[in-house]
Each structure stands twice: as C-alpha cells, then as structure tokens.
Amino acid sequence: MLMMKNVFCRIDLSSFITGTTEHTWQPTTSAETNLPSYWLNWRFFVCAIFIVTSLFLSSFLVWRYEGLIKRKAGDQREPIGVVYDDETWNTCVARIHPNWLLGFRVFGFVVLLGLISGNAMADGASIFIFYTQWTFILVTIYFGLGALVSIHRFKSGENCLNGISTDDEELGSYGPPLNGNVFKSSNGQGRHVRSTREVASTLGYIHQILFQTCAGAVLLTDGVFWFIIYPFLTSKDFSLDFFIVVMHSVNAVFLLGETFLNSQRFPLFRISYFVEWTGVFVLFQWIVHACVSFWWPYPFLDLSSPYAPLLYAAVGLMHLPCFGIFVLIVKLKYICLSKCFSEEPYSNS
Prior knowledge:
three-stranded antiparallel beta sheet, two-stranded antiparallel sheet, transmembrane
C-alpha cells in the first residue's frame, strides 16, 4: 500500500508540473487512416515519390562522400568525409582543456536523460509518436556517446597528444588539438605544420553523424514548433507546460554549447543523414497509421488534405535552411576563433 501511495504521489506531482491533459494539444482524426481508400489515391503516391526520391538521393550522397573514399593518384586533397580521432573528443581552442568538454557532455547527458524520462512518466509512452521526442532522444544518445568517447580518451592517459604528431621547425614538438594544419604567428604569416593524424574509428564516425543529424533536426523541431505550430494554436486548443517548453528549447541550448566547445567539422553532404532521419520518421508514421486509425501527431502529415503534397514538400524544403543555419553557426564560430585566438591553431570546418 505504501508503494502504491508513493506512485500516486509521483503522478500527482508530474500532473502539477505538466498540467492536465485537458490543456494539452490533442489533434482530431480527420479520416479513418487504416482504410485502403485513404492510401490508394494520387496524394499518397505523390508524397511517396517525394519521400522515396529524397531517401535515394541522400543515400547516394552518403555512398559518394562518406569516409575515406578512394582518391586518384597524385591527389593530395583531404576527403571531405574523413573524421579524425581527435575531433571527437577535443576542444576548438588549445587553452580550453578537453576535460571541460567531457564534463559538459556528462552533464548534458544526465539532464537530457532525466527530462525525457520525466516526460515519459508524466505523459505516457504516447509522446514517442512525436518527432520532437524522437529528436530529443537522438540528442540524448549523442551526448551519451560523446561522453563515452571523451571518457575513453581521459582514461587512456594520453591526454591531447594521442593521434596527433606534429613537427614544426619553429615550435619544436607540439600537439595541436584542432583540425587546422596552419599556425598563425604574431606577424600574421602562417607557419605550415606537417601533421599525421589518426583516423577515427567507426564509433567516431557515428558520433560525427549523430552530431550533424541532431543539428538539423533540433532546428527543425524547435523552429516548426515556435514559429509555425504554436502561433496558430489558440489557448483553447493548447497550452504550454513545463515539458513542452523544455522539449523544444533545452536540446538546442545543449547542442549549441557542444558546438561552441568541440572541434568537429560540418561538411554539407551530411545533410543526407538529417533527411534520412526525417524520412524514417515519416515511413514509421505511415506504417503505424495504415495499421491503426488514430490522429496524426502533426497536421501537415495528414494525407486526406488536398494540399498534402504541398505541405510535405514545404516541410522537406525546410531541411535546407535548418541545416544551413547550423553550417553558418559553425563557420562563424571558427571565424571568431581565428580572430580572437590568432596565435593558436584553429579548425576549418
């Protein structure tokens, strides 16, 4: 009986924090989604062609550029898909110790895991039908994996020098923690450094892929919610509560903090993973709604609307500015670092 009482107390507390279900958004079902007539029409086929084409093009870009692709003889250019081991655990500025990034990742993982767990306990497993929760879980996994990578480097006892061997005629032996292979001296002239860097493991590549997928997905979820969904919903349909706010804000805050600290690059072709992540979510929604008739988590996913193809295309095209904004953030970060820390090595994404 005491255990049951404690459970009910926790339920009451979560209800107090998140509000009652009467004040949360519950979309209505516009049509029976598990009937053949819902799917066998031109709207679905147009949307299906759009989704399948996007997934095919994304897969092609991954196949074409990911990893260490074969280069022609004499081509000394660095493959755009390469990921170096030090990029997964090191910071973007030499004077910031990698342990600060380790601590931030551990803290971020604990907070994010606690928030998504609390959201699930408060509102039930039905929250995982939303793209927001999918993305929040992905960000949590990224921080957990990043923490493991940083902890592994910390336990190895090799500090920042492992995986980087640099020979500089003026500085002697030095271990730069960043991607760049050029030091800026006080007179503004670059001193080229010959470096040999260890390529990241499969886990390192997964870590990099998660980083860029999370970047686009977080901007998409938070942007769509705050600038499209929320402004057009009245207080009668929807009211903000604790978990709705944090699910659409905290993930972006932690990801931006991670971006400002880490030394990871941001090649454009990895927008493919972002597109594939959204494509998998849409396919999941289609399969579930074809089997069971219930409301769509987002109105623009409803295939009964004559504007469904336009809505799908509009949301699909939003991937470009969402990913592009984060590319701009990363580039501005390195531009600022190159000016503020002109005598330290800095990374070029």
